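hey so u asked for the seq, here:
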Amino acid sequence: MLSSASWGSSTRGLGTLIAVMMRYPEISSVQYNVEDSTLSCTFILRRNLEPTVYHAMADQLTEVLETYRAVTRRPLRYIKVTHVVMDQATEIELVRDADTLSIEEVGMAIEVLRDLFEQDLMTDSHDLLEEELMLQEENIQAGLEVLKRDDAGRLVALRDEGRVMVFNT
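ran it, structure tokens below
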């Protein structure tokens, strides 16, 4: 792990990933990839998803985000939903282009996952008040703009036993 002093202009990127993890305790990791300007959010379910359930979830998630973009008349350039079935869990990854991503979409994706999987969606607890959550969302949206402009490199934030660790890979 690098100290923030060695990040130069990417300290805002670091702060953005930390803010995403703090605001959305359902996200197990978030990654910004500078090569293709994408943001990946990973979620963990406490169960194995059957292929039919995965495809229905991926279709619903994609449809919700595409509909939101159509209603707001803003383009959606790239969206991809993948999964990895593990021993007694499933990892779901949502990848979006950072150029058109809005923080509202992250919240919508989480709502879809909550609606479909309820208690199976792993969540880290937080004690932020509603006002703090709204401020976090504003900071995240501003930080996403900075990630698009700055050469932050590839940033990864992971949850580990209640802590958030950020790496520049």
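Residues 1-9 have pLDDT under 50 and may be disordered. The beta strands are 29-33, 38-45, 79-85, 90-97, 155-160, 163-168.
lmk if thats what u needed
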